[in-house]
Amino acid sequence: LYDMPVSNNGARCRLIIYEKGLSPESDVIIKSPMDLGGLKSKEYLELSPQGKMPLLVCEDGAIPESDTISRWLLDKFSAQKPSFVPSASAARVKSDLICRFHDMYITTIQSAMYRAAPPFGQFSSRRDALQELARQLQTINGYVDDEGPYITGKEISLADAAVFPTMVFVMHMMPKF
């Protein structure tokens, strides 16, 4: 897994690795993209056309995109618990929706929390991007199970792995920058 600690998208994969008790030294080796020359190097771009983190290189080939990597990890290591797939169908649907909303509408503008200057996704002002970020967080909140303790109820789900690292950005990085 090519990733760095500053990536909330990569943290989704790392959270799954750690919660499942997988070894980052043998089960899924975590390396810096610099080991391939960096995100924009020819070597990295041949494996990840967008030049983004994370990137998983495994027996199935090169797999970019945190959601796809996460689902591969859940499948590959399905014998290790937790499954990250709620047993209730309603919770599974909510988890999938939350992941989709997170990836489509939050990560695309999250740079408004820390980047010095626009654009921030489709927005040319930080204010507009942050207003949209707040709106999307409210949308996700509408799918949260109030009884918890996890986002979709009693079981940890892929939604927790996706949203938690981003909320760390919201709570700690945004006020700084």
Automatic annotation (TrEMBL):
InterPro entries the UniProt entry points to: Glutathione-S-Trfase_C_sf, Glutathione_S-Trfase, Glutathione_S-Trfase_N, GST_Omega/HSP26, Thioredoxin-like_sf
Pfam families: GST_N_3
GO terms under cellular component: cytoplasm
Source organism, top-level taxon: Eukaryota
Location of the GST N-terminal domain: 1-81
PANTHER family for this protein: GLUTATHIONE S-TRANSFERASE OMEGA, PTHR43968
Protein name: GST N-terminal domain-containing protein
Source species: Guillardia theta (strain CCMP2712)
Lineage: Eukaryota, Cryptophyceae, Pyrenomonadales, Geminigeraceae, Guillardia
